[in-house]
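Per your request, structure below.
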């Protein structure tokens, strides 16, 4: 070996020194900026997953539970509000039903209206006689005869099975005389009476012409011939609560 060759060691050492990596090397891996960036990203991803699983997800589950509980409570509140509205509606319907019951019961007869029924009919029959000439036919109530002394419960189904043991009636035989026009007017006025009245067995026949006597002279009636009208007038009366209770059939003993 010559001296010139020995001097070349310095140059070869420089070549070796120039090939060394400037980044840290671990397990043969050189940690370049790119590698470090990838590692940092992976670490960040795992950190984010850790936070998501251990912090965010429990908080989200708790939020969902609270949201469901809030919805359930709101549903209960809405149901209670609806119930209160239904109660108010039921109270209103009950008040309306009571008012309608009062109005319906007002259509029926009662003891007071029966006491004045004879006077009312007599007034209706003679209401048109004021303008009738002296020798013309005058309307007159000839018969007013109740068939019984008091009203009796309806049990024969004549007005429908639903009415049995709920209403009672009193029947009155009525007869009056008058012209055709007077008869029409009297019947219309009977329909306008407050109590609910039913007319049955209606009959109208020509009445014999009668002469009026005035100052010892016989004056024959003029104008349309008289008509005798007869019918049965039935007045309906609701049973009292005590009568309704007594009308309910008792269950046979076991």
């Amino acid at each position: 070996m010559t001296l010139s060759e020995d001097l070349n060691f310095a140059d070869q050492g420089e070549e070796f020194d120039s090939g060394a990596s400037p980044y840290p090397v671990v397990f043969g891996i050189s940690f370049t900026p790119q590698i470090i960036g990838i590692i940092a990203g992976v670490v960040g991803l795992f950190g984010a997953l850790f936070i998501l699983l251990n912090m965010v997800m429990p908080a989200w589950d708790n939020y969902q539970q609270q949201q469901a509980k809030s919805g359930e409570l709101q549903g209960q509140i809405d149901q209670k509000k609806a119930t209160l509205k239904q109660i108010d509606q039921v109270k209103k319907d009950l008040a309306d039903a009571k008012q309608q019951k009062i109005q319906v019961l007002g259509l029926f007869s009662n003891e007071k209206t029966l006491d004045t029924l004879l006077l009312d009919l007599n007034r209706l029959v003679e209401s048109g006689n004021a303008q009738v000439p002296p020798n013309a036919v005058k309307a007159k109530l000839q018969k007013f005869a109740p068939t019984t002394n008091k009203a009796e419960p309806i049990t024969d189904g004549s007005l429908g099975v639903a009415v049995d043991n709920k209403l009672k009636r009193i029947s009155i035989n009525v007869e009056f005389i008058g012209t055709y026009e007077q008869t029409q007017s009297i019947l219309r006025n009977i329909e306008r009476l407050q109590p609910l009245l039913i007319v049955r067995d209606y009959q109208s026949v020509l009445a014999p012409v009668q002469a009026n006597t005035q100052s010892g002279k016989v004056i024959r009636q003029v104008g349309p011939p008289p008509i005798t009208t007869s019918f049965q007038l039935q007045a309906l009366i609701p049973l009292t609560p005590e009568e309704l209770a007594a009308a309910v059939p008792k269950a046979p003993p076991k």
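The beta strands are 25-26, 29-30, 140-146, 152-153, 167-178, 197-206, 211-214, 217-220, 227-238.

Regards,
D.
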